[in-house]
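I am writing to request your help with a piece of structural work I have in hand. A protein sequence and the structure tokens that stand for its backbone fold form the material at issue. Please examine both parts with care and let me know of anything in them that strikes you as inconsistent. The record follows directly beneath this note.
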Amino acid sequence: MKTTEIALALQGGGAHGAFTWGVLDRLLETRRYHPAALSGASAGAMNAALLAYGWMEDGYDGAREALGQFWQRLSALYPWPAAHAPPVALQGLLQLSHFLTSDQLNPFDYNPLRELIASSIDFARLRTTPIQLFIAATHVNSGRLKLFHAHELSVEHLLASACLPQLHHTVHIDGEAYWDGGLTANPPLFPLAYQGRARDIVLVTLVPQQWEETPGRAGEVERRLNDISFGSSLHTELQGLAIAKREAGRSLFGLGRLERHLRQLRLHHIDADATTGALDSLSKLTPHHGLVQQLFAAGRERAQAWLQEHGAEVGRKSTMRLWRRIG
């Protein structure tokens, strides 16, 4: 079967990343697309690293297995009932985070992800992957995006990409402080567009882009602020990419390699708006079994719908209306 090289840009969103697991599982199951490059922030970074590592172990099947084992083991760490509301204790902890630092709330820097990641990925092997990897983190002191690449990755790099400073200690790498990559690139698109080998980029998003009504209640306002904070960088990157493609298309002179690549770049989009938009924002912090399985199933279903509508067009033309998407 003929395969098409694609790049995958995976948005972060905590436990909502299980939706992306479902999307990836269905895409890998088809064996129609070869992952040449991956970018991600937070949960998207986890999914990207797991896919790349599993791919090295056993191609499509290995990638599916690595992703599945990670999410199943993660959900086993949060054995709460399948109700989507987090425990009262977690709600209280989040309230305290407005007044106390993570060092005070979590003095022993307990993070169950550390051991889970370390036991799920052989980083010495991952650092030799032929798949391009771009993992986003936010440099605390400058507020700038920091991209980590496959050859330098470790557990700490993935923890840095997923570090919510309200709950976890700041992650230090080579003496520099890092927070969640979703603050500055959620997910990174430019490295896939400018440095990636694939001409097709599939963007998988978790943050709802549109609300039907203006938020009025305090909880709704806080959630929308969070969505905007973790979604605005993507809007900015899409605007920049749209302009770059337009200018490359207008060029009347000889085109260089970059201009030709931009002209030929094709964009596709799989969103979780209908699923994550109906969930409480605190559900991002509660990856219990019921929620993870619900999101996984929703991701597979959404990917199947996308495949039926657009799957055959990958490798031929863009299916994402870029200018309409950025308004």
